[in-house]
Write a structure and sequence with these properties.
By secondary structure, the chain is an alpha/beta fold. The chain folds into two domains: 54-205, Nitrogenase molybdenum iron protein domain (Rossmann fold, 3-Layer(aba) Sandwich); 210-328, 3-Layer(aba) Sandwich (Rossmann fold), CATH 3.40.50. Helices cover 50% and strands 11% of the residues. It has helices at 2-44, 61-71, 94-101, 118-126, 160-177, 182-207, 225-231, 249-262, 276-287, 313-328; strands at residues 54-58, 75-79, 105-108, 130-133, 216-219, 234-237, 266-270, 293-298. The strands form three sheets. Strands 2-1-3-4 form a four-stranded parallel beta sheet, sandwiched between helices. A two-stranded parallel ribbon has the order 5-6. Strand 3 (105-108), helix 4 (118-126) and strand 4 form a beta-alpha-beta unit. Helix 5 (160-177) packs antiparallel against helix 6 (182-207) and helix 6 packs parallel to helix 10 (313-328). It is globular, with a radius of gyration of 28 Å. 37% of the residues are buried.
Length: 329
Amino acid sequence: MGVFFTELKKSILIGSIVIVAIIVGISSTVFVQENNTDELTRENLENPSGSEKIVVTTTTNVITDLVENIGGENVSVTGLMGPGVDPHLYRPSASDVNKLQNADIVFYNGLDLEGKMGDIFVKIGREGTAVWAVSENIPTESLLSLDNEGHFDPHVWWDVQLWMEAAKVVATGLKEQDPKNSLHYEKNLEEYLTQLEDLNQISLEKINSISKEQRVLVTAHDAFQYFGHTYGFEELAIQGWSTDSEAGIREIQNLSDEISKRKIKALFVETSISPATIEALKAAVQDKGHDVVIGGELFSDAIGEKGTSEGTYVGAFTHNIDTIVQALK
């Protein structure tokens, strides 16, 4: 009997040792994997020179594209809003707030474009995150007023020259955050400004093929006032500068009267807004005997899919110009 208990104790002891060894082995594996994951993450956030990338969070994808052009290999950019997203109505999730809080620097448009995020920008700025509105250095006299209460149209990116000012703000913000790479940001800025100057000149040449009488841009909402002001278009829209209200039957009827009377050729839908209102406007115009067409789809509050030509500011602007010229000339 004593031998039996002795052997039993040995079995239990050996079994315990094996279990402990297995647990230790698993723990070591997990520890190594976690360390490898940390190393991989750090590696992904390093640029070719070996220094850590600046972590940037942006709001709209047009700003994401801007920061990537100026920051290049020295930044890791996370954009909150993708293609087809309406920034006027966008409500940030808890995950979005975390991305803003964990960034080294945040870039947003300003001028109340991201109307439901203003308090968040103030909060994270007070907590120590660098927060920059890309529109902040645009002279007041270059902004288009919406009312007598100091509100300005936020769609500044549809004037190439104003977007050049936004590019300078991004470069300044990155240089302040990462002074050792200032020359890199300055070089990228100069190259990008050259691209924008070329874009502006080519766009003006294309627009000259449209007669002045036909330079009327009819869209769902007033996103193209800067475009019209700079490139000589009258803009007619069903809604105002923000989509944070629904278009009514009266607005559609009133606009259809004007389009019919003036024999305007085409209407344009927008990628970030339902085409329903423009389709209703087209039907109302046709009921009045004028055969208006939908001239195409324009990028307004967002640019296209990343990885496509239209997923860049230059590509989206070129797409808009070509679409408008084709429909109106």
